[in-house]
Amino acid sequence: MPKGSNAPVPTTALRVELGWRSGPGVPDVDASALLLVGGKVRSDADFVFYNQATHSSGAVRHEGKRDAGGRVTDSLLVDLARVEPAIETVILAASADGGTFGQVPDLCIDVKDAAQGTAVARFESDGATVETAFVLGEFYRRQGAWKFRAVGQGYGSGLEGLATDYGITVDEPQQTPSTLTSPPPAAPPMTTPPPAMPPAAPTPPPQAPPVSLSKVTLTKAAPSVSLTKQGGTSGTMRVNLNWEVRKQFSGWASKLGRPVAMHNDLDLDLCALFELTDGRKGVIQSLGNAYGALHQPPYIHLDGDDRTGAVASGENLTINLDHQQAFRRILVFVTIYEGARSFADLHATVTLTPQHGAPVDFSLDECTVPSTVCALALITNTGDDLIVQREARYLVPERGVSPQRTVDHAYGWGMNWTPGRK
User: Fold this and answer.
1) What residue spans carry the region label Disordered (predicted)?
2) pTM of the model
3) Which three-class secondary structure state does DSSP give residue 55?
């Protein structure tokens, strides 16, 4: 679609994919959506992005990133049938983290039928220079029906400038008050009674806290972060693993006398070793139905077993940070249950989302060894701090040794293992 053109939307359940090509020097890019009435949001709740993933109506949901051989997409699910009647426009935006859009090659937005995967609209944005945010497209109502318009409007003030332009209140770093150089003059003595004080004004209702745009990406150069300093030491923390599902060649079968390729879906299992301050140790995993518990020891719960790798579902662990003093260390790891012989060619992302504080994410490195188990993140309680350390460490089990026993040995957990099954 050329810039400024529009197209009818044939269905209401849509997947919006913001796509670009990654590489050295290319900044990260994030998709977001704003639901508008009269050109502005009604409140900060009408802003959907990585720190506020779902709109209260359920009409828009941020799904997250996938990396397929260097082609990265950040996706939003949009259900126009659930958009509230007052909403006139759904803005689809992009922001660059750590650079400008002049450094982002092949930027485009694809609108697809969420059920069928068929193309509805595509807009390729080119000619960017110093912009750090873009409105790439929008859904808007026209005579009772929805349409999509290719916009292509750039901002030089990043996600913060774009958000505030549409009425979002953005959290800003606190400024240290200036120090008084001299004490204020003393009040003169009162010779007459003070006037009667007017009645106190009613206390206004508490305002919602401003939206925080901060996030933390762990890398080899900066592999750890303090949850304590981020304010993420209470409530729950969700640990999500998502990956690109690839079809793996696994052999040949005969059909009508001709060879036919057989495939298996990749099945990864998110797991965690834990050690509590009272000395108890254990494992959280779907193997053996060891799902844990959130409100009693070990205060870690595995949500379920997923085969899709989708961010909205995927593999999820939940950790109860209200009991952080019970933790000594937690090692989050992933094993291949079936569908592949190693992590080679796998593109996966780990996201830790505390209820309070900035989300922490990182991608797995390319696997160059025949590994079936990967240590993802080590969470350590130092007594006065809770540290998340990016591991991204591929391990190769010896013959006859399970992936769980392999990661146990590598990190000195010292547990006894018996065979288990799903």
Assistant:
1) 171-212
2) 0.60
3) coil
